[in-house]
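Whether sequence alone determines local backbone shape is best considered at the level of individual chains. The sequence in question and its structure tokens are set out directly beneath this paragraph.

===
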Amino acid sequence: MNKKKVIDYNSPVILTFAGVSLIALVLNMLTGGISNKLLFCVYRSSLLNPLTYIRLFTHVLGHADISHYLGNMMFFLLLGPGIEEKYGSKMTISMIAITAFVTGVINCLLFPGTALLGASGVVFCFIILSSMTGLKNGKIPLTLILVCILYIGQEVFNALFVSDNVSQLTHILGGACGCFIGFASVRKK
């Protein structure tokens, strides 16, 4: 019996997101940063500009460089397939869109002079959702509590004591989106 070995496109939303993000990164390199500024980062701009609304969602596809991309995609590809398998493709797309929108709007409101890009908010949403897999029968998993304490503690520490170009607020908002979505989906069931 001769069995063919076939590669399975096992997680279409996650794999497509990673691929489109890679295309956005290459475009950014080829255009000298223009494509990120136009499409793949969010910042306060005129509400009359249609791209303002598009960027609220597409900023999660943009990355500053290959290191930024790889850092996000390692976790995204590790956590994403389990999320997509558990919640389904449509819900996974919704999670990404909700997280993108929330982090984009908050960035525009609170940090008018700062551009935001990258999938780290979505990654942190997935980290929290992955920790919530044991949530049932009104019992909160200890792993969820520990992840939240460690994660929020690290982000608060970094916000106060580390000078970098990382938006800790985006990470916290992404985690909050994951927590909200996780609890909402448990309630729905």
